[in-house]
Amino acid sequence: MAGRKNFPLRMDADLFAALERWAADDLRSVNGHIEFLLREALRREGRLPKEMSAAKAKKESDSDTA
């Protein structure tokens, strides 16, 4: 898997607060939750590269059995 990419993200304070609450409900960091939401949107639209989709699916199935 390629390295991680850092970039600044500006958003409305109310949007951030809503994301922060949602991330906490799912026991994720805000950053992790944004990444999760983007990955899910890409997957639904068929825009997620196949190798990325397969690797993520394997990682999630491995963590479910642990």
List keywords for this structure.
66 residues; mainly alpha; 3 helices
What does this structure look like?
This protein is mainly α. It is built from three helices and no strands. The protein has helices at residues 13-25, 30-44, 50-65. The longest helix is centred in the C-terminal third of the chain and has 16 residues, at 50-65.
Low-confidence stretches: none
The mean pLDDT is 85
Helix content: 55-70%
What order do the helices and strands follow? HHH
Number of domains: 1
Q: Classify the beta-strand content into a percent band.
A: under 5%
Describe the sheet with the most strands.
none
Structural Rg: 14 Å
Task: Sum this structure up briefly.
The protein has 66 residues and is mainly α.
Protein topology:
Elements: H1 13-25, H2 30-44, H3 50-65
Helix pairs in contact: 1-2
